[in-house]
Amino acid sequence: MSPPISTQALVVRPEQKSLSLEEVVIVDLKPDEILVEIVTSGICHTDLLAMDGILPMPSPGVLGHEGTGRISKVGEGVHHLSPGDQVMLSYSSCGSCDHCRSQHTSYCEGLQARNSSGARSDGSSALMSPSGDRLFGHWFGQSSSSKHAIVNASCAVRLAPEIDLATLPPMGCGLMTVAGAVFNTLDVQPGTSLAVFGVGAVGLSAIMAAKHRGAHPILAVDRIQERLDLALALGATHIIDSVHVDDVGGKIRQHTGSVGVQYALDCTGAATVIRTMVDSLALRGKGASVGTPSSAKTVDLDIMSLLFGGKHYIGSILGDSSNQVLIPHLLELHQMGEFPVERLVTHYEVKDYETAFADVRNGKAVKAVLHWEAL
């Protein structure tokens, strides 16, 4: 067993539904894990849903699942990574089930147990308070809202040493999820139409991915004008302000020769929006959901429209791929200027975490990134 390490982390407690920067203790490193000194961690909507009790995550514990950092130590069973390696962190997968072996690790049979149970797959936790109380962690195999994190090695994607982690936007969850939905789940083709419902960080990344694929037209639907303006700057050809447009589906058909869109992507998780998305599809059109619902978890769909329209509606999680394949591809696109996700990011020192989380909740920040090196 490794000697305990004292570090600082953002701890969520059930009675608060908020965070506090506290001292925590890392107590051991398993053979399939690495110890990472975190440089940055992104704030994802999924973290907010867990804080609010909508997604199941035991507490008190440490969230955060979009980390970047440098490896300090590797477990005895880790041979493809070394101390000093720079890594981007994503989700944990077993590597041995049918889905993992077919490079669809986002559908690992152990995904929930490995990423949202609050513990390792054996039920243990590497985190405790200075007084010895257990803290839940291993959120997406990493719990990277911390100066140091015990990370399952399957989460880590090695980066080139020349990459500046302080400026590289984390891509290990939301941005990867939606780019993979465009590339893999929908497989958007050049010259085909796509509508994106909800253009926060996830939806705007979909706009960039669709532009890279050569989609046209690309329609962005949202309630916030500033985000619609940014969608135009990043590649959308048309924008629809759903606050001022009563019939969003009709507006989409107006922009697509009255036929609807060939592809559509919901990034909101809202049942009413999903229904509008499916209704806006053209014959044999395909729609996908990547947004996690915060309220209603079911949606009423017109079966006859699906049946006679040959329409497809499908879910997509974590890029519908392998993080070891998709993240390097996105990094390559980023270096080419084809995936400029830095335009979405607002940077915060960890000491300003309350402001960062508030800015995400109220929409002031599209994508907030916390910096840990000053601690």
TrEMBL record:
InterPro entries: ADH-like_C, ADH-like_N, ADH_Zn_CS, ER, GroES-like_sf, NAD(P)-bd_dom_sf. The keyword Chaperone does not apply. Residues 15-370 form the Enoyl reductase (ER) domain. Keywords: Metal-binding, Oxidoreductase, Zinc. One of its GO terms (molecular function) is zinc ion binding. Transmembrane segments: none annotated. It comes from the Eukaryota. Belongs to the zinc-containing alcohol dehydrogenase family. This is Alcohol dehydrogenase.
